[in-house]
Structures are given as structure tokens and as C-alpha cells.
Amino acid sequence: MNLNIDKLDLQIIEYLTQDAQISYADLGKKLFVSPGTVHVRIKKLQESGIVSGTRMHVDLKKLGFDVIAFIGIYLEKSSLYDVVASELVKIPEIVRMNYTTGNWSIFAEVVCKDIAQLRSVLHDELQKIKGIERTETFISLEESLNRTVKVMADEENDAP
Amino acid sequence: MNLNIDKLDLQIIEYLTQDAQISYADLGKKLFVSPGTVHVRIKKLQESGIVSGTRMHVDLKKLGFDVIAFIGIYLEKSSLYDVVASELVKIPEIVRMNYTTGNWSIFAEVVCKDIAQLRSVLHDELQKIKGIERTETFISLEESLNRTVKVMADEENDAP
DNA sequence: ATTGAAAGAGTCTCAGT
DNA sequence: ACTGAGACTCTTTCAAT
Question: What region holds the HTH asnC-type domain (chains A, B) (predicted)?
Fold first, then answer.
């Protein structure tokens, strides 16, 4: 698929990555193009695979998920990455996994209802996975920022 | 605001946090209620602040952002958190910040186009912020999982 | 590639249960 | 609190530029 991304595409991405609820009509007004053009561009972005989907975001604390934690995982051998990762995916509390440089082989993020549930993930779930040497856990006491990356270099702005 | 979240609410959240594009009509069919009921529930979730918004997701690599990295930040004094955080927010490459237990005071995530840009963030941007003692950087070589938390304990399933 | 207009689909409201 | 139907808005298509 061809990826000829111009300024208009980036502007559309910039808006929709922050709020995907805005209508094509309103977005068109902001960007001085017709709703049809917005539609064509978004369709292009979806077909090219640049847009991978749309997700609703919820306030996890209000749903009773009070604990976010990061877990650095040391493996006995780094070649065990795939097999350990495939076990970790089965744990629903794990929402993200990255294969990283540095101390650990795997860096994971978990979301739990409380400390007891986190303890259960660490002690019950992770312990039974073969290949994990040890783990280091960092509990988030406060998430002070969570945003999307700015896809446009701020060369130009658009008039009101 | 009252938060009386029942099973139907959780099912709606479960679907929409994975794909916010599904129509109320289709969601109603899956959950055996009318589109109007889905609408009422979602409106309730939005007004109660449980739903914090909807975001389009993009494949960052396809937009030229090839580097995701995690940065652990040591502060000279942990009381400097607020003042340092307010400086970090100004750096557009930083997309997430957590105040964590353990080694570091601040744990940040950055998204960059390439290693040169990451180096610039570390060397040019972070260096000039007073109060940062040192940093540790972990570059993600692969993101093998990125999903939302399962909000429903899997007690019950719904028939097809 | 963008537009304006028409057709189709979805959201939103409300009276009834 | 849920539903079904109507009113309304938005998406989607398409011929024309």
C-alpha cells in the first residue's frame, strides 16, 4: 500500500488520535475541506493500515482498578523470550509487553483491582512460568500524563 | 455522580474499549438489547466520567516513529517531582509519565522518529531540567502486546 | 484529488409499557 | 428501565470538475 501522507492527513490524525468522536463534518470545518474529503482521507488511512483502530478510554479507578504497575522480567536465557511471552499473554492483568534493551528482557505493564490481585499475579501467575529468573516491580502511585505523540512537526498552524 | 455499574455496562465497556467503531445497533444485537438501551447506557457512562474519551490508534512505525523507549528518572530530591514533571510535559516526545515506587521517582515513556531524536531528548531536553540526577533508558525492540484490561471477571458468557 | 448533493445508515428522543 | 418508531444527523457514494 502506498503511503503518501500529506499535511491534511497528519492534521486529521492529530485530531482523531485525541478525540475520535468528532464528526467528519466538524473536522472538515476545522481543516477547511468538505466532509467527503475527510472521509476519503480516513478511508485511505484505514486501508493502508496506518489507522489500527479506535478505542474508548475509561477511568480505570472508577471501575475499581486502582493499581497500575510495571514489571521488569529477567529471563534465565534471553532465547526464552517467545515461550515466556506466550505464557504472559494468557494473564489478563498484563496489558502490555515490550522486549527491551538494558537490564530486563521483558518489560510488562499490569492493571489490577488492588494490591492483593497484584500480589497474586506476581506470586501465583508469574512464579509458575518456567524461564523467568526474577522480577522487579514498580507500582505507579500517580499517572501524571497519558497522551498521544504529536505527529506533526509544528511548522505551520491553521487560522481560526 | 452515581456509579451503579451492572453486567450490561461492563459488557459495553468490554466491547468499546477494544473497538469503539461498532454501531449501537450491532452492539445491541450482540448483547440482546435495543440500540436505544445501548445509547442510554453509554450516555450514563460518559456523564459519570467513567468514559474519558475515544481515541483513534495509529501504527507509529508507518508514520516514521520507529523508537519507543522507557526512561527511569532519578531526582535529586523526590520533593522536586512537581516542578520536574511540569518541565517534562513540555517535551512533546514524552507521552506518558508515572510517579512510581522503587528506584526512580519518575518513569516516562517517549516516542521518537529515530535514535537521533531520542538522543536529543535525553541529551538536550532532559539535561537542561534542574533537579534530575540521572536517567536510565530502555529502548523497546518490539512491542509484543498492547491491549486493554478485561473489566469483567469471566463468570458468565452470553450465548450466540 | 476535491466537491456538492442524494441515498443510506446510524444516533437520539420520547411516549408507552 | 427497556422498547419501538420517528426525527434528525452523519456517513458514504458518485457524477462532475
Answer: 5-66
